Amino acid sequence: MVAELSKLRDQIDDVDQQMVELLARRLSLVEEVGHVKSLHGLPIYAPDREAAMLASRRHEAEQKGVPPDLIEDILRRTMRESYSSENDSGFKCLKPELRPIVVVGGHGQLGGLFCRLFELSGYQVRQLGSQDWDRADEILADAGMVVVSVPINITEQIIGKLSNLPDDCILADLTSIKSGPLQAMLEVHNGPVIGLHPMFGPDISSLAKQVIVYCDGRNPENYQWLLEQFQIWGATLNRISAIEHDQGMTLIQALRHFTSFVYGVHLAEEDPKIEQLMSLSSPIYRLELAMVGRLFAQDAQLYADIIMSAPQNVAMIKRFHQRFGEAIKMLETQDKEAFKQAFNQVEHWFGDYAGHFLAESQGLLRQANDSTHRS
What pTM did the predictor assign? Predict the structure, then answer.
């Protein structure tokens, strides 16, 4: 039996080696694709091409008795690596005549990411950090675009220092709130203005499938090339007003981060053995615990600024607290009918998204379970 098992394992190892060779060949082809896309200014992410390719591979897998989800998982992971490797080819420069781009806060993580992307696209980039303000006039004198990427709590203060920019210079910011910074930019600069919010962190390897929200400020015709440049990088654009953006961020960022913060504080004060929690975890709890832990592995000042950035955030969190209290009353009175009524109301609000999210989360849970190592 041992000999037979060893022989089969040797054959599996041989197949795995062939898979590695095929993946290496695929990545080599992707590199060539990256050069062609860079030359012709094509986006690294083509959703229609990706969807058609996945549909074809799923069909072929099914014909051969291979689970379609398996081949899709493999290809999606491979494509993620491919999108990252395409960055190495650089990107076509859509505005080669543009004067230098100055990133205020370019020594920071997010500012540094945008510096690299602009440089990969062939633009001349300068960084203006806190230690450079004695040279600010010199650095900004001939700027073609200025991008502000500094902590939320000093964004408007920094924007206020940018009053002597060239009239045709584009002024933009990367802050996660938009109404205040956008208004500050419009007041300090008479030229083109745009508010940007990258919906991702600085640790991403590619902008493929990432979202950049933008809010028009002034003279949008002057920065259309910038939006197209983002698309070449692979980003998806979402245009919205500053007010609507901030209303959405109250739920998407402030409330979500605050509830994770409170749950983390609760865990720390209850002080269970985290190793035991992990050993008892289902994939869904492990994933939830990972998302909470992720918050506390990052910058406390950043999340304090996000959560406390606007009075409307506090008002939303108070309404959440009120509803949490109402739910506790259901628990105390064992009112299962009220619970089911509320449950059905929420299910109706989600509509078709409930089933979609169920399927999507099952894929995430499978991935979380695959990465689990149990001794």
Answer: 0.86
